[in-house]
Amino acid sequence: MRIAFDAHMVGERETGNETYALNLVRALLALPPETRSGIELILYATHPERLLPRLNPAELAPIHHIRPEPAPLRILLGIPLATLRDRADLLHVCYVAPPVRPCPYVATVHDISYEFYPQFFSPRDRLMLRVMVPFTLRRAARVITISEHSRRELMGRYGLPAERIAVTYLAAGAQYRPVSDPAVLAGVRARYGLREPYLLALGNLQPRKNLIRLVDAFARLAGQGRLAGAQLVLGGQAQWRESELQARVQQSGLAEQIHFPGYVEEADLPALYSGALTFVYPSLYEGFGLPPLEAMACGTPVVCSNTASLPEVVGDAALTCDPRDTESLAAALAQVIAQPTLREELAARGLRRAAQFSWRRCAEETLAVYRAVVAEGHHGRPA
Prior knowledge:
This protein is α/β, with parallel strands linked by helices.
């Protein structure tokens, strides 16, 4: 059975989508031979030179170059021609599939936030997602999503039957573990211009991440003299409407205490998490919310939203708050800053919680989806 996997997002700094694709591919290739028996994985990459170094040399799969631009040609021609040439039995895509292709496909959709928060997307992205994703989902042999919350929304919004949706939970990668070496921690602080103590928020700088409210909560604590000298670090790549966040930082009068290190390289993330006083994730909406789990795996106490999929992911291992209430967020931060015992308790709970998720399980469950689709002999939209 030949599985063609669209890995075009690897190397594009797409955060969640890239993390999913890369870790799933790694986990699939690392499965024991008896588990992976009869499965041949073929990777489609727009930048093979970025994907290849990130795979284990002992577990490589064929990587075929698909021209990256323009994106419509990659989707309409590049991928279908490649699956035809490779005689693929199944294609796995994220969000958007070619309308015509020679084999059935599985589509992973992490969430449909564009349906519930359209104001957080550019007009171009909003139009593309609202047209292409429903089209893709209607014709998919199976849909994979990453939380029960997202599964319920896919069923409710698009009328997809429950039996066509599989939930495969994500996990913190094996590299996410507590870092205690002072030299390593100091090196990462120096590389990104950080100072201790710092509160860390990580993710694309877009309105859905609710960082403006985090800045407001931080400013409220500063006005109350409750920051204990902490710096707020907002790591991630600038995206749609990021200038509004920058403007709010300037208005707060705390530009010297709020730092933007930009995109953080994957290799630096464990030390960045480990060195933080707390990790803060006030997102308004997440299909899963991988950064809190990564922070937990590094032994960092987490403060996050009590909405969407996040309670499903963090369980009782994080201090949760109402992301629409600045006072609630500020109060949660104040607790963690002021209470070392609470930080220790959250760190211990977080380590236990993170250990309950694994990429191997995600790979095994994804492989089961592949086998079921091929066994059923789908060719396009299910009957």
